Amino acid sequence: MIVLLFCITCSYLVMDYGVKALIRRNTEISNEKILQQINMKTAEFHNSMYSILTLLSYEQTIYDYFTQTPAEQVNAHKGLSSLLSNMMMTQDGIVGIALYDDRLNKLVEIGKDPGLISKVKMVNKLSYSDVFRPNSSSDAYFMVSYPVYDLLNGNYDKQLGMIVVLMRAQKFASYMKDTEITEREELYLLDSGNTVISSARGKEYRRLREEELVSTDEVFVSVVEQKETGWKIVSIMPTDDLYRGMPIVRSFILVISLIMFGILAVLLWFCYYIVIRPIRNLTLFVKNSVANPVWRMKVEGNDEISMLADNLNHMLDERDEMGEKLRQAQRVLYETELAKQQIQVLAYRNQINPHFLYNTFECIRAMALCYDAEEIAEITMALSKIFRYAIKGENVVTVEDEITNIQEYAKIIHYRFGGRIEVEIDLQKVARGLKIIKLILQPIVENAIFHGLEQKLEEGKVRVRVWRTGLADLELTVEDNGCGIEQKRLEELLHQMKHRSLSSSSGKDSIGLSNIYQRLRLFYGERASLKIESRPGEGTRVEIFIPCGEEGEGHV
Predict the structure, then answer these.
(1) Residue 373 falls within a domain, yes or no?
(2) How many C-beta neighbours within 10 Å does residue 486 have?
(3) Residue 261: what are its φ and ψ, rounded to 5°?
(4) What percent of the chain has pLDDT over 70?
(5) Domain count, the chain
(6) Is 190 helix (H, G, I), strand (E, B) or coil?
(7) Cα 107 to Cα 117: distance, rounded to the nearest angstrom
(8) Is residue 407 a contact partner of residue 370, using CB atoms and an 8 Å limit?
(9) With 50 as the cut, is the pLDDT of residue 509 above it?
(10) Is residue 476 part of a domain?
(11) Nearest in space to 66 (alpha carbons), one of 162, 164, 165, 166
(12) How far apart are the C-alpha atoms of 84 and 96, rounded to whole Å?
């Protein structure tokens, strides 16, 4: 129960933290969108001012005014004033316009408050001044300055003067109106000196300190830089406002957690009385059944645990029955072991026979050499090597060992048929070290000689070819130019080879094609294959395909 309560408490804390973080993130995103909207409106104002001042600076009347003499300027003053008055009407918020020459001498000034445009600085691009207020009772203003160059005469580096526009800061009040996300949020439009140009709460011309523009535990501050004007759009929001609606969500999570706790408590009680307690009794019974093998568990009900207890009782009954059978089997095993020891004695005695044959072959060879019968000595030596190769050693050999054994057999055939039958060997160099099972080729060569070439009067040839085909297969081919096999007999031979097992092979068939085919299937499975092609009067061809590894070793 304590663990359950701990898990639910942890789940509540995790959900509370996650929802709290999600609500804060959503509030921050919404606030960021509002700041970006104000930023876009400020950028639109900048673009509008840029278009107006660009058009105004290269208006012919204004352009000529910068280059005229004082007398000419007096005559042109009326027309210029009319032009500037009309331009003031095109942009809401303009309260005055002044022209300055390249020495900052004021040439002309119009507007409702002509004395407000002062302390200007020469600029070489569109620039905005900090906000100012002439006195504590008046509105706040800022100036927009734009340079005028002698572009019409091609003097791009010569600045004739500049145009200064006086703007009322109250123009931006509409940008900030009804934009706060929360009731306590404060939105400001600041100039480059952090003085308030406009505010949603009417706090213009207030200078904010740098520490007020940094987020703390109490307030969350978001700042967007207005790159065209150099101003800042600032949002200052109490941290608590970031989690609006959190109390309701927290209450909802608490109710859900309590409901989950109640449901899990009921499930825990159910699991204990219906599942855990019966399993516990079953475990105690299993522990005590060793000391009291005749005990059986009482079965109550039809649920799975009751069925398990019933099966356990049956298992114990079968254990007792199997114990009795085991004791009887031990007696039989003891008697069998005695018989096995007798067989081993016979096996040790029979091991003497191969050594006897080796020694006999050596004796015959020595006698042949004594009587200068070198052919008999050589045949005997070859036969001894073939016999030793077949009896001793591992069942898996290299291709080179198998070919060496065929060469020894070829010596016997050479003397047996007086050189009439030739055994030709074609061994690829890269195939010498590959591994195959023993005595695969020699029985096929023997069949080719005694069933295909012995009946011919003319000379015959058996060709043994071992070749590696790529990285996948090792190809072994035995081909003769003997009598061949009739089609019907070939079909019978193939059927007998594929449907006869090693255990059923006997006599000379045990070392024939059936033996080879079955051994290939046992070692290599479906990956190995054996094919026979024959034409009567022309000869027979036997092909064996064995899979081999990529590193140059056969798979056995």
Answers:
(1) no
(2) 12
(3) -60, -45
(4) 80
(5) 2
(6) strand
(7) 12
(8) no
(9) no
(10) yes
(11) 162
(12) 9
